[in-house]
Amino acid sequence: MQHPLHTTKAPVRASTLTSPPSRAQASTPPVLQSTQLLGSQQAVDIEHLGQRYRLQATKAGKLILTK
Fold first, then answer.
1. Angle value at C-alpha 61, between 44 and 37, nearest 5 degrees
2. Quick one: which H or E segment has residue 57?
3. Is the model's pLDDT at 6 over the cut of 80?
4. Nearest CA among 32, 38, 30 for reference residue 58
5. What is the model's pLDDT at position 45?
6. Are the beta carbons of 47 and 29 closer than 8 angstroms?
7. What is the spatial distance between Cα 14 and Cα 32, in angstroms, rounded to a whole number?
8. Residues 11-66: pLDDT tens digits?
9. Longest dimension (CA), the chain
10. Where are the residues of the annotated region Disordered (predicted)?
11. Single pTM value for the model
12. Which of 26, 56, 59, 65 has the greatest count of CB atoms below 10 A from its CB?
């Protein structure tokens, strides 16, 4: 009789295992294009935790986030 924790399966090769994402990969936020947020507008309001913020594009092509 076999011990209940003993298996007769073939060992798993290291090349078939996937490693968990590194800390840097796990915390990398998704990348959005500014046009996804602004569309054709120069500014949009963003609500976050009950607070309203304004994201606006300047004529110089920069973004400003204000509360």
1. 30
2. strand 51-57
3. no
4. 38
5. 98
6. no
7. 36
8. 555 555 566 666 656 789 999 999 999 999 999 999 999 999 999 999 999 999 99
9. 79
10. 1-34
11. 0.57
12. 56
CATH C-level class of 32-67: mainly beta
- Give the N- to C-terminal CA distance of the chain in Å, as an integer: 70
Decide: 55 and 44 in contact? Cβ < 8 Å: yes
Amino acid letter, residue 62: K
Residues 57 and 42 sit within 8 Å (Cβ to Cβ)? yes
- Measured CA angle at 57 (ends 51, 60), to 5 deg: 145
Q: Domain locations in the chain?
A: 32-67
Tokens of 34: 């500014």
Residues 42 and 59: their CA atoms lie apart, in Å, by: 9
